[in-house]
Amino acid sequence: MTGLVHLRVRLAILVAALGLALLTAASPAFADDADPAAVVRGLGDRAVAMLRDETLTPEMRAKTFRELLSEGFDMPRVARFALGRYWRRATDAQRDEYLSLFEDYVVGSYGARLSAYGGETLRIADWRPDGTGYALVHSKIVRPEGPPIAVNWRLYEGDVGWRIVDVVVEGVSLSLVQRSEFTSVIRSGGGDIEALLGALRKKRGLMQSGLATTSRSAG
Fold first, then answer.
1. Strands 161-169 and 172-173, sheet pairing
2. Which of 123, 142, 147, 154 has a CA-to-CA distance to 197 between 20 and 30 Å?
3. Is 127 helix (H, G, I), strand (E, B) or coil?
4. CA nearest 123: which of 41, 180, 48, 59?
5. How far apart are CA 68 and CA 117, in angstroms?
């Protein structure tokens, strides 16, 4: 990965953390809206309130972020995409564990970056269907300083309405980045999905330890 691409990926992950928070504060009033842009637009205010709430402890913030994530995103679909062809090779037990580990991984990885919030706002431009059941919502994150950052949200309309399945920041798809990383781990482990599960178990343990340490320090 070149230095420029690596920098763009790091920017994408950081911005997506903010974007996930801005967009995962879904409520039932927006969950089944027929317009995906309206779904996205309606999520911002509550999310910003969460980001600005200085009374939330790290545990409370992580818990809230997890709840909002499950409401605004189709997490099983996102997780299956990230695993790629290895999903079909996994046993039922491996799939169940992977789905749980994946959600913990997303909450820990992105939730930990929410402290970077500095007054940014989300502006929705438009949206378009792609003819396959998906829609792309175009937006920008406007920063107090610096140029705006283009963020596109890919949504899928399922039984419960529109749900986000990918975040594209300045041309970088977080789903594709995640799939590439997971594939690399599995290949390094000889093509065995247990290599990825082991890495995610370790990552979850480290995240939980870090969260506990942060909480003790804050207290």
1. antiparallel
2. 154
3. strand
4. 41
5. 17
Per DSSP, the three-state class of 123 is strand
Tell me the residue ranges of DSSP E strands in the chain. 121-129, 134-142, 149-158, 161-169, 172-173
Whole-model pTM: value is 0.78
Nearest CA among 42, 15, 14 for reference residue 150 = 15
* pLDDT, tens digit, 9 for 90 and up, residues 163-175: 889 988 888 898 9
For helices 58-72 and 3-23, the axis angle rounded to 10 degrees is: 90
Domains of the chain: 3-218 (3.10.450.710)
| Residue 153 contacts residue 40 (beta carbons within 8 Å) | yes
Amino acid, single-letter form, for residue 43: L
Q: Using an 8 Å Cβ cutoff, are 137 and 155 in contact?
A: yes
Q: What is the C-alpha separation between 37 and 40, in angstroms, rounded?
A: 5
